[in-house]
């Protein structure tokens, strides 16, 4: 009986893991038809006979993003929203620009593992393992170094130099999604009740209100 329960649990875990990745394509490609009103998992396909090289092309990743903001950070995404040929293919690319000491704030990609490579500068990266360990794995990367943020874990990047920094990441989803921790917790609409947040963070209401006012 016990071994049956264990076998069932393993099977359930395997199914959950399999479901965490994007389904395999059933055709060569499925160029996204942004104009379709159909609601499906992903985007509906253009007639494949209408596919053009332009549907598989994005230009502009050589251009630096604007980092004149409080984070000193900019994201230039190339997901299915910018590149229709990515639809159903389970991959995307992003360019990050960092002002000196700029940061990518703590965030999670709910649908993708990320592999980052530094093109310019020195970038500290880190992610935190899930409960109960909550272990921070962090490192300073130099130009040419690569690091992985496993799917669904909270992570960050920080330019630890006095010059600009640039990195590029590939992500294992056409639509990785982003959950910014501070915005989700303190900037939700409508706001999460103070009672929930004061108990969750073990601080007083004024601290919560102060944080809510910023996000
Ligand atoms: C960069 O962003 C800032 C703040 O939004 C804006 O004032 C500035 O004009 C932008 N610079 C460029 C070159 O677009």
Provide a descriptive summary of the structure in words.
This protein has 4 helices and 10 strands, in the order H-E-E-E-E-E-E-E-E-E-E-H-H-H. Helix 3 packs across helix 4. Strands 1-2-9-4-7 form a 5-stranded antiparallel beta sheet, with no helix packed on it. A 5-stranded antiparallel beta sheet has the order 6-5-8-3-10. It has 2 domains: 173 residues, Jelly Rolls; 38 residues, no CATH class. The longest helix is centred in the first third of the chain and has 18 residues. The termini are far apart. 23% of the residues are buried. It is an alpha+beta fold and 215 residues long. It is 20% helix and 26% strand. 2-acetamido-2-deoxy-beta-D-glucopyranose (NAG) binds next to loops. Belongs to the germin family. Keywords: Apoplast, Disulfide bond, Manganese, Metal-binding, Secreted, Signal. This is Germin-like protein. InterPro entries: Cupin_1, Germin, Germin_Mn-BS, RmlC-like_jellyroll, RmlC_Cupin_sf. One of its GO terms (molecular function) is manganese ion binding.
